[in-house]
Write a structure and sequence with these properties.
alpha+beta; Alpha-Beta Plaits; four-stranded antiparallel sheet; 41% helix; elongated
Amino acid sequence: MARYLMTCEHTPEECLQELDSVAAFSHELLNRFDWACKDGDHTGWVIVEAQDEATARQFLPTNIRAKARVRKIVKFTQGDIKAAHAAMEAAPPMA
């Protein structure tokens, strides 16, 4: 399973409708969301585990799915970073 960060932006006018939609869809999902609405940034973020982006979108209410930004996210270890540096050093120079 992969991890996906879903970003749900909305206007101040849409705010309560968006919150109501998430709450009605799943109380568990509502508890997993972080919102910046009270700070004037009408955006919600949630991380889910899913097989692919399409499956991740299924975690959202239907009225939010299409406009949500969904990004696959990963964690890097020190070893991953070291390997990336080594790969860049081994790559032929760009012409």
